[in-house]
Amino acid sequence: MKRELTASRQSLFSRIMNPKFIMVYATIGLFLLIYLFGAVMYGKVGFTTLRTFTTLFVDNAYYGISAVGMTMVLITGGIDLSVGAVASLTGMIIAYGTTVMGIHPLICIAFALFIGVGLGVLMGWVIHYLNVPPFITTLTGMFLARGVCSLISRESIEISHPMFDSLASWKINIMHLKDGEWVKVKPISYINFNVLLFFVILLIGIYLLQRTRFGRNIYAIGGNEQSAKLMGLPVGRTKVLVYGFNGLCSVLAGITYALYVKSGWNLSLQGAELDVITCAVIGGTLLTGGVGYMIGTLFGVMLKSLIPALITFNGNLLSWWGKIATGLLLLLFICIQKIVVRTTDRRNVKTKAAAKE
Asked: Structural domains in the chain?
């Protein structure tokens, strides 16, 4: 009995200390470290309030939604550079259709979903069946979406519709119990529709990756695509579905961004694809594929959102310092990835050699 208990403890410890989780641990640890720094430096001026914490999600929900889809794409060993352009196109479709053409926003959203998911499926099909590199395929998709945005309008279009306005202003105030009554937390903190949608998509992503055959196929393809084919896994169908799901996330990100700014503009979210990739990579997703977790991506989004918050509370630094800090973080995590991969490879070689002996 004791041996079985000891063996189970060792098995649990070995799973927890799996090298694949090291990147996630590093992201969580760095987030806590930077947050602690902010608490010490700016705690007296409101950095540690619940409002500041919820604002991290309210202001960056569209990045988080897109990062969920990007995480799946990166795990397969691919990449998608069209996410920012598709999100921008979504906002333009909603803005032009609602304000200029007088179409109900739900119909515009449905059309945007059809376009975004369709483009994602098409790119996935081209990548697998025509063997075109993901970088080139999605770069083409990016130019196509940006071009259509400019064809629709080169001016910013305000979105004005009662349903859209109510959805944009909808929020849940966070309450606490005081003297037997529920009152609003001070300063007032809330979560809105965008934050709820982000967490719904995040939970769907966790479920798909960790609890379904589809998720296991994604990891298998990213680990070794040739081996996945030899095992008879549906590589082509999985890739097409992954890029289709990423297209869905891009459209949802565009909807949340349109709700955030209540307008559409052909040049909005330029470079957002790099921010989304950064969130996934900082969250522990390997650029080479095969490794990645949605929890890591969540903390990657939070970590990337925390840096601008620190700069805002400082008040003396330009916003560009946020880009510099994010770039340094990305470089740091890529280096850590390389170290982890090499260490894992060496362990595997030693294990195989010991097994042969």
From this structure: 61-325 (1.10.3470)
